[in-house]
């Protein structure tokens, strides 16, 4: 089983801490937020998310 997590808000203080903990445990963490290096999304523009 793959150990992959989608983490919304990965660039915030809490998100960064959560990301580090999951990565220490061997999870692949895919982040999503306005300024994420993985997936930059803004939930205010839902029409862009539908096409994502």
Structure notes:
- With 52 residues, the chain is of the alpha/beta class.
- The chain has one domain (4-46).
- It has two helices and three strands, in the order E-H-E-E-H.
- It has helices spanning 13-24, 46-50; strands at residues 4-8, 28-33, 39-40.
Distance between the termini: 25 Å
Shape: globular
User: How large is the share of residues in beta strands?
Assistant: 25-35%
Series of secondary-structure elements, N-terminal to C-terminal? EHEEH
Q: Which consecutive residue ranges, at least 5 long each, have pLDDT under 50?
A: none
**Main sheet?**
3 strands, parallel
The helix content, as a percent range, equals 25-40%
The figure for the number of domains is 1
Roughly what is the average pLDDT, rounded to an integer?
A: 87
Radius of gyration: 12 Å
What is the strand arrangement across the widest sheet?
1-2-3
Number of strands: 3
Number of helices: 2
- Content-based structural category: alpha/beta
